[in-house]
User: Which sequence fits this backbone?
């Protein structure tokens, strides 16, 4: 049994962390901080948690997490980097769901996020928390930087073919759709039901903060520079990332599904659909799963489709998967629930 | 550990039963029947169940459930009554989610369902499976008739005030809304996304099959005849029943919330919101909970609001709650998950 | 051809006014004001209007509407009452969609809206803009106070039976559901798609600002005091009001559909469904129509169901219907479009 | 004033044709056929049309359209080819919304649709009804084959750059999402609200009937063979096609928005968003518009985004646009309505 704290627990990744951790048999959630909601009972802000938790949000200024074994940050960017260094010095394990420790290129991070990074040495120390790529490093990490939602879907989709060296790394295209929860629990007109339902649109065609994170990871998989064209879309739904990926095959004679099978056969959360059905976000909603299929249409352009829940495999579930590795628990502990259907 | 069979496992109540039973620590699901899908793997029809179940649907003609301790029927009406008698004779426990054993008045049942009842003696033997009303009887029952979704919401809403004798039993009104999953997994044009989304309508204003079931139960609570005006609506969502109930108070000086508190204080699944927030179907989606509030506006008309998930507390979850009682398990075993939010 | 100005043109009622007025053959929209968006092109804020309008929003401080024949106010409450008096003095016609001139009882208005009314004499002068009730008075009005969305649905539903004297005016109940656009184009967390979709809830059970407006109108129809229990709900959709109304019949032998037929036979926008189908909000979405049916279940409680579009018949369309009457145009001019289906 | 008949008027394209034609000032709809609904009043099947039309569906076996000037076919594939030849011989104008006369390569058509084509000579005679490409030919056509919904979006998106010769025609990729109305008004489980809402999925990755139609059109624009990788998706909404297109630029120095501007400056229904906002399906819902933007991210892969309403510009509206050209009406007559917002 470990004790867990969460900083920034009032956003969508935060409440999803709470829900999942409350069901985890080896975890006790002991501290939740929120500047805006300090003093408010957690189950008053989130009535769905009634009966599951008997805590109130605390002011982060007053909380030092001495009694916690691990602290999750579910904060906006540029928050964790201020507080994490002290926790690391205390010897605490830290799992950051924000972007603060994801990008090795500090200059690039500062360009995209518009502030100076105050803990660059921790960026070096942080382990990128994609278990399918970095499992062993995560086990021994003190600080894990969890991937973003789009980067999780895109990297898991391209990884087998990039590692196998069978696609041109300069030809990558990702057309992705996200539910509106990906934009966070913030009051914006464009996210109102009245504005966002019954409509599809792209956004950020000319540039998105997740692009350098994806190129960094994909380049490592390829062993060389990659070029990725990334177009995110807002879909009229709450949860889910659907990614449709394209690349030029360098060898059209290959058994692509076999490559995916070899790559992912022991992964607890990757589900290959093998042409029996196509990945669909509702199959994975509320779960830590990632559904993937690969299809080779006539011609040399391969198509890979991926579905995850942006708040689980794309955020809080993946963070708990990392926690399980860091503490020697079974990797899927507390993450085995199946999607509610319909 | 008990062995469980499900007849008619391909509908929405059926797949929800599977999902919930797979997570139940004392249950092994061993047999699932479906005439239409015999031979098909369960996780092929319902990909969300991949990894959780390694069975195929079987033809009901070939399955006799000798190895099962309890059999659930998630079939359309007029199916269970044909098969249940033999199972009861074999000494099996049976939990029927359909309407076959709910109505004590056989003639009324035959009028509403348009067929002759072939097992009227079992109707007498069956226990109505609303634990908040019938807990002790369910414990020792061999055959449980689970309440319908509307009847669950309406009866739990009116019960405290009817039992306390503080409302006029001839003045009951229920205006209820259901998600489209309540109409079942059947291909009908009016249930298409293109027809049912972004719209509200009533249906069955002139009469609904659930009315006599409600009047039967409410009359017992009142100890006298009741008169209920019931208007169901189709809401543009998948899951959930929201019930808004009205009745004439016979004594306007009462502490209505106190009456609810007394009635439901030990109930594991009833959540009283006490004016802090209003019951909302998303708070209970995917869970066995029932949120209730009571408000007394100026005047003598009391308003009670209720939210349940039609497929869980209104069907499969309540059936498992009954199973837990019948087998001496903790009543909430396997039913403690919280709603996914957002 | 008349010239029209709109104050507060950036809310949902405002943009709907623009859309409808642009299609009106006798109207030229010449001035649109908005404090927040002054200087912004209208079709930049609302891209759906591209090609239809070549204006920018103007700062209300600079606009005096000298060149306008009629000015619409689509402002929050307590705005119009400050500006309308000067316009009335100039001889302009004014159509107010807000609550400022709806309630004859100034004290009640001040209680519900929490501010002092600065133009009580205009309240006396204003005509309540429900054409089915007040057609002749609207024709000659200088100032029209348009009904709210709930009051439109509830009053049109009860009017025939109240006027016919066949229901008990102290027994009225209205259970209504609104799409989220009814809450306006304002950035609130509870209106986000991620919060409001796939859920039903009541709100304001203990009191709602539209109640005194409804009771005022219903009392006039009844010729005596009425008692209304009103429960509004938020439905997971953008547009539409669905009202389900209940009342005690004082004479159960009556031809209720005949009473509605007599009352509404010449109304251009009331559609009686006569039991052939039930009123449904998608049938009227985007249109000025009001679908109504009345059903008499067994017993003495009559059920009336009503569907309107909250932004058209419940706001902007009804305002234009009033304008048509005030300027002697055909009542349905510019309002004859049919609902988009599906 | 012309007289119009519609064959197969009960599907979604059919009812949308009726709605639009009823608002067309030069059209009288005189005959509507449907095998399944013969004898049923049109406004009984589609209550939204009440007051707009006083006709019943007729059995196609009894209707010969002698009194019609033009006949629309909104039928499934392989229906029109049987009936159109006789109408053409009678001298009638025919506008077919189905696939029967779209593909010049009869063998390819027969492969994709699985039946022998019975009127190949009419395929040769038919004019492909994309006005932005074929305006003059449509004016004088007797038989117009309207483009499919995906082909309209994809062709309008690629046309300017293909005609300008600035993209590699062998590098085309289209990732498109459609609302569920694109699958028609047919009772299928996968299109139920309970199955299709709140989810995104691809379908037909391995091949889609619209692909040869797109390649045929794009090849003509390019003046050479093209290679298109096409992935359609089902989006959780009713209406709309959103297309995100990718291609390799052969000259990265070009003013891409200028090329689009030149190409589409006189088009009545193409709206270029020029980076001010991104195309969004709700901007065009219910209208004949096509919103397009082009963006050149760093690198040589151009991204084009397109939004149309699948039932209007992707079907019935475009068919009426063709009709206007064929009869010498103003091209946008009856098609000028703006999208309902929100």
Assistant:
């Amino acid at each position: 049994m470990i004790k867990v704290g969460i900083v920034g627990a009032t956003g969508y990744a935060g409440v999803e962390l709470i829900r999942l951790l409350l069901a985890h048999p080896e975890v006790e959630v002991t501290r939740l901080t929120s500047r805006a909601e300090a003093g408010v009972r957690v189950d008053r802000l989130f009535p769905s948690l009634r009966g599951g938790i008997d805590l109130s949000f605390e002011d982060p200024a007053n909380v030092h997490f001495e009694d916690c074994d691990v602290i999750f940050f579910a904060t906006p960017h540029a928050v964790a980097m201020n507080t994490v260094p002290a926790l690391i010095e205390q010897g605490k394990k830290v799992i950051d769901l924000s972007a603060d420790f994801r990008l090795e290129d500090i200059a690039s991070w500062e360009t995209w996020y518009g502030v100076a990074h105050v803990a660059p040495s921790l960026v070096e120390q942080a382990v990128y928390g994609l278990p399918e790529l970095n499992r062993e490093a995560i086990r021994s990490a003190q600080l894990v930087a969890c991937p973003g939602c789009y980067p999780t879907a895109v990297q898991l989709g391209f990884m087998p073919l990039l590692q196998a060296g069978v696609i041109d790394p300069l030809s990558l295209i990702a057309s992705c759709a996200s539910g509106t929860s990906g934009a966070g629990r913030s009051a914006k007109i464009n996210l109102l039901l009245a504005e966002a339902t019954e409509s599809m649109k792209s956004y950020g065609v000319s540039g998105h903060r997740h692009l350098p994170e994806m190129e960094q990871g994909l380049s490592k998989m390829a062993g060389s520079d990659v070029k990725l064209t990334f177009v995110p879309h807002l879909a009229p739904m709450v949860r889910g990332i659907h990614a449709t990926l394209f690349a030029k095959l360098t060898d059209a004679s290959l058994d692509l599904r076999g490559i995916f099978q070899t790559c992912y056969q022991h992964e607890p959360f990757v589900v290959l659909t093998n042409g029996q059905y196509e990945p669909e976000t509702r199959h994975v909603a509320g779960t830590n799963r990632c559904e993937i299929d690969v299809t080779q249409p006539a011609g040399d352009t391969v198509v890979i489709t991926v579905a995850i829940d942006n708040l689980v495999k794309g955020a809080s579930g993946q963070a708990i998967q990392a926690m399980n590795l860091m503490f020697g628990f079974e990797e899927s502990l507390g993450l085995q629930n199946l999607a509610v259907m319909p």
